[in-house]
């Protein structure tokens, strides 16, 4: 798919991140798309909203998609490079592709995923970068808690 | 800690696994203990019970522990070698130690964790092995779904 298609998918993840920010949460969003382009699930970080440290955006989107027999051909779209936890999710379940808004404010496990056969598309989106940079500057303690730093 | 101490902790995870089995679920249990030995959270695989593919045992125990500022000194006890998803959880949040009931029926990412500074204690518990072996034999399709195989 051309990057233009991925950017339309990224918009779903960005909308989730912005909703999270409006709720006082951590602005990271994600969406899981099927091999045929169907939206299977979408979600956002819910650490603050639900008091749930396991609810990273990618996990929330994966959960929202419910039980699936196979993840072959699916794409996880996320506003930010996936942490080790979410990278492990992608590897374990055989999600085929990860589309990443940006990896400048945080660099997770996407090189490890690429080395293990996952297709990585890094969009370097300036809106994603600005949203995360502003958040990390405003709430460093919350951000560090979210990544166990 | 002597292995006898870890086996007492493992009993908590085994009790979770047995509860899951009784519910018709996948018999994997886990518990997160604090540096001082306090039980922070416990949980079991809830794929069947909640229709939630993200609820692996370790993630469920981590979630039950709620928000924590640091995981330094904590121990994740699990009946089965942690898959990549749960191994990623341990690495990202800096959980110090993983105590594993068995790694014979499934071998996840615990060598990777050891290589990245996590203390691994493999108990090779015969009850854990038998419980998982019986389950995989009885419900192979459900087990494969749970690990994306």
TrEMBL record, chains A, B:
<protein>
    <submittedName>
        <fullName>Nucleoside deaminase</fullName>
    </submittedName>
</protein>
<dbReference type="InterPro" id="IPR002125">
    <property type="entry name" value="CMP_dCMP_dom"/>
</dbReference>
<dbReference type="InterPro" id="IPR016193">
    <property type="entry name" value="Cytidine_deaminase-like"/>
</dbReference>
<dbReference type="Pfam" id="PF00383">
    <property type="entry name" value="dCMP_cyt_deam_1"/>
</dbReference>
<feature type="domain" description="CMP/dCMP-type deaminase">
    <location>
        <begin position="4"/>
        <end position="113"/>
    </location>
</feature>
